[in-house]
# Entry
Amino acid sequence: MKRLLVTLAVLGLVTGCSAGKDAVVQGSSFSFVSPGGQVDITYDLAQRQTAPVLAGDDLMNEGKQLSLADFPGKVVVLNLWGQWCGPCRTEVPELESLAKQAPGVQVVGIDVRDPAREVAQDFVRDRQLTYPSIYDPDGRVLLKLSGYPRNIIPSTIVLDKQHRVAAVFLRPVLAQDLLPVTQRLEKEA
# Structure
């Protein structure tokens, strides 16, 4: 019985995420739908939709707000992570490497489901991460990402210079996965 319930829950998640062929336009805002259950999704220029302005408390600077609007005209790599997440521990050095290799690109983290801010801050300090993160323990910031699967951690969204969604990775990434994407986006007008 337990196996049946787990199977039904997984099928519900899979079918819920694969209901469409691409990003869906609702006004000019991005609404995510995983096409056919893909984990690496890229959007041609004509398909791109504007990401919502995501903002929240800066993880490392309590009382300070951090927003995607702080990085106008920059390609932004937005990474959802948590210090409790094993794959995130492998992924963050890759994101730091990308930040150093691509100075025209801004990496921004969204730290999710970390109820103890100090633990997440220690994680960042221990790994000597230089890119900022929004602290989002209850997932309120992520609610603005319509249709985005908040249960897939880590995952990464790449925004072009106009902060339209250009690529989504629903899996852990390496710098070598992101570098060609960000270089292509930096060359766009």
Remarks:
- Residues 97 and 175 are 6 Å apart (CA to CA).
